[in-house]
Each structure stands twice: as C-alpha cells, then as structure tokens.
Design brief:
The complex is a heterodimer of chains A (about 300) and B (about 110). Chain A contains 12 helices and no strands. Chain A is mostly helical and about 300 residues long. Chain A has 2 domains: about 80 residues, no CATH class; about 190 residues, no CATH class. In chain A, helix 4 packs across helix 5 and helix 9 packs across helix 10. Chain A is globular, with a radius of gyration of 22 Å. The two termini of chain A are about 25 Å apart. The model of chain A has no long low-confidence stretch (mean pLDDT about 85). Chain B has about 110 residues and is mainly alpha-helical. Chain B contains 4 helices and no strands. In chain B, helix 1 runs antiparallel to helix 2 and helix 2 runs antiparallel to helix 3. Chain B starts with a helix and ends with a helix. The chains are: A mainly alpha (about 300), B mainly alpha (about 110). Chains A and B meet through helix 8 of A and helix 3 of B.
C-alpha cells in the first residue's frame, strides 16, 4: 500500500480490533490502553507525522530484497526462540507456578487494591513502569530537541483572532459540540486517573485521554488559539515533574529505609503506604504521558503551520 | 412484570443489532461515499442507542444504568457530529455526490482525494 494515510487508518482499525479481542479475553486494562493509545493517540500522531512528511511513499529508493532477507532471518530466530517456551495455555508454565499465584492470592493483602493489574504495574513491577515513563519522557525530549517550534513573532494577537473568526463559520457545529464535550472528557480523564486503583484505568490511559481533549481543542479551534490556552512551557515542566515525582517516591522510600520504590515504608501502615505510593506514581505517569503527547502534537503541527 | 421488561429488552437488543447490521450492509452495497456514510451515520446512532437501552433494561437499577446513560448521551452527541465532519471534509475536498443526471459519473471515483 503506497498511500500512507490508508496505512495509518488500517493500523488504527487494527488497534481497535485488538482492543476488542483483549476485552473478549477479559484483559480490560490492556484493552483500555490499546483503545486509547494504539487506536487513538498513536493514529493521531501518525497522521500529523504524515502531514509533515507527505502522503505517499517514495518509489524504490531502497532495496526491498535486503529488508526481506533481514526479516526472514529475524523471524526465523524468533521462531527458534519460541521452541523453548512452554506450550500456549499450559498450566505448567513457570509464570503460572511462581509469579501469578502470588499476585492473585496475596496482592489484596499486600497492597489492598482490588485491581490486580494496577498493583502489578505500579507496585510489584514499579521499576519496569518507571522505565516506560522514562522512555516516554525521552521521546518528548527528542521531539523537542529535533522539531521544536518557537512561537514566532509573525503571528500576533490580531492575526490569531482573524484566523479564529475565519474558521468560526466553517466549523460551527464542531466547535459547539467540542465546547460541550470537553469538560466531560477532562472529567473522565481524572476519573480514569484516580479510579485506576479500583477498576480498569491508570496513569497511561488517563494521560492519553487528557491529551486527547487538548488536541481536540487545538484541532477545532486552531493552533494560535490553543497556544494561548495551553501554556507550552508549563507542559514541558509538567513532563519533567511527572518523572521526578515517580523517581522521588522511590528515593523517599529509600530514605525511609526500604528498597527503591518499596511503598511499604511510606506510611506507618504498609497497606496505607502502598496506597499512597501507587496513587503518587500513577499521578506522575499521568502527568508525563499527557504532557509529552501534547508536546509532540503541538510541535509536529506547529512545524506544518510555519513551513 | 419481569417478563415484560425482559421481552422489551430483547426487542430493543434485536432491533439495535438489526440496525447495525443493515448499516454494515449499506456501507458495502451503496454506490458512493455520501450514501454509504448516510447508511452508517443514521443506523449507527439509533442502533447503538437501542442496544444501550436494551442493556439498561437488563439491569434496571444501580450504577450500571447511569454509566450506560452517559454512554448513550455521548453516542448521541458524537456519532452525528463525526458523520457531519466526515461529509464536510469530503465535500470541501471536491468529492461530488453521485447522481443520475451527473455527467461526470466516471469522474466521481477518481476525484476521491
């Protein structure tokens, strides 16, 4: 397929379909993440990337044969690697003998959270999640370093107003409905953020939903208006603060005499400490994810604005 | 009483599924972009709404109804607006609707951007 727009749309549809089969397999948290990240914001960011780079693939600049050889070798190695793995669904697999029973039986006593996925993600595997947040933060920093758009003096207040009103008639229905829905989207993001301990949700999904609301506003009301509403410096700061909060919780737990990211020592009662730690690190994840998505979108589309 | 609620719920679910299915048939069978979008845009809102109402009747008390109601309100807002935005985008990109009197009958497909 040469049309990159179609490719992006196909990948979005694939994301939504995989979200539905995750639901069918009872993995609602994963499905939620896949629907919001894979089908939602990733598609959107890919679309902004396509508007930057052009819609169709360049013809025959590379040698497909070499790529095919590499793909075959990698695929062969991967299949060779799976030979050692236990059979799919086997009850004797190590994960079912050692790790999973501990999570399923003891996580309620140890962390006091009904949603096992959150306690695994934020507490048992807190270090992995820290790595994921740092990866997202690094992506945001990379975009800022390579594609950063300074708000140029060329567009001033009056010009922004003119653009705003020119677009007003054209997007009247979209604007009114967006205005109506935005508070609910933001409220839902907060609900997902803070209800993640008890139901499906958490920092990643909430951050993406929050960013989606801001991106929707920017798309419907125009970038100059959105820039006035959304302070870019604040979001850059927020991205760093999220990672700092996450790492800070780890350092504080070390200062209190535990291991890095060992929340038991954060409060007098271990379960209360777990609650506090998980809430704080989910907040850090949400801040970083939301602000990095907003940073990426604004810098991609701002580059389109001033070619 | 119970049987009435159950029957009406089943009726709503069936009707909703039928509407969604007919929308799916429409998107395959209809000739051009606008008619296809019309088929989906109209049936999808009503179909999803009927399914949600049927689900509400399945469990007529508690938090579930509230959540389903919220989803229903969101669907009623978002689905027509999405169709509107799609149609408008297509129209602004000079995709002409297919009609019998239209002379560029062959040209319509190629003008899809």
């Amino acid at each position: 397929m040469r049309d990159l727009f179609a490719v992006v749309m196909m990948s979005g549809i694939f994301g939504l379909l995989s979200a539905s089969f995750f639901v069918a397999m009872d993995a609602v948290d994963v499905a939620f993440t896949e629907a919001s990240v894979g089908a939602g914001i990733a598609t959107l960011l890919m679309l902004t990337a396509v508007t930057l780079t052009g819609r169709s693939e360049d013809s025959e600049r590379h040698k497909p044969m070499w790529a095919l050889v590499v793909v075959f070798i990698t695929g062969g190695l991967l299949i060779y690697g799976t030979l050692d793995m236990p059979y799919f669904g086997s009850s004797q697999a190590p994960v079912h003998l050692h790790v999973a029973p501990r999570y399923i039986n003891d996580s309620m006593q140890e962390t006091g959270l009904p949603n096992i996925v959150t306690s695994v993600l934020a507490s048992y595997r807190g270090f992995d999640t820290l790595g994921e947040v740092v990866v997202i933060f690094t992506a945001g920093m990379g975009v800022l370093a390579l594609l950063r758009v300074e708000s140029r003096p060329g567009i001033d207040q009056t010009m922004a107003d003119t653009i705003f009103y020119l677009m007003h008639e054209r997007h009247l229905i979209l604007r009114i409905v967006t205005k109506l829905l935005l508070p609910f989207i933001l409220l839902f993001a907060l609900y997902v953020q803070f209800h993640g301990d008890f139901g499906p949700g958490g920092g990643f999904q909430a951050g993406v939903i929050f960013a989606a609301a801001i991106i929707l506003y920017a798309m419907v009301f125009g970038l100059p208006t959105a820039r006035r509403v959304v302070n870019q410096t604040f979001f850059r700061l927020l991205a760093a603060v999220g990672v700092l909060l996450y790492g800070g919780v780890g350092v504080v737990s070390m200062l209190n005499g535990g291991n890095f990211l060992d929340y038991n020592v954060l409060a007098d009662d271990p379960v209360a400490g777990q609650h506090l730690g998980i809430l704080l690190i989910e907040l850090g994840v949400g801040c970083t994810v939301a602000s990095v998505m907003v940073i990426i979108f604004f810098n991609f589309s701002g580059r389109r604005e001033f070619p | 009483m119970d049987i009435i609620v159950n029957m009406s719920s089943a009726l709503c679910l069936l009707l909703g599924s039928f509407l969604c299915l007919s929308g799916g048939v429409g998107i395959i069978r209809f000739p051009d972009f606008y008619t296809r979008m019309h088929a989906v845009g109209v049936t999808d809102t009503l179909g999803a709404g009927m399914i949600l109402i049927g689900l509400m009747l399945q469990n007529p008390e508690g938090l579930v109804v509230l959540k389903l109601l919220l989803i229903l309100v969101m669907t009623i807002f978002i689905s027509p607006v999405a169709s509107h935005a799609l149609a408008k985008a297509a129209f602004r990109n000079d995709l002409m609707p297919l009609s019998d009197s239209n002379e560029n009958k062959e040209g319509t497909e190629s003008s899809i951007p």
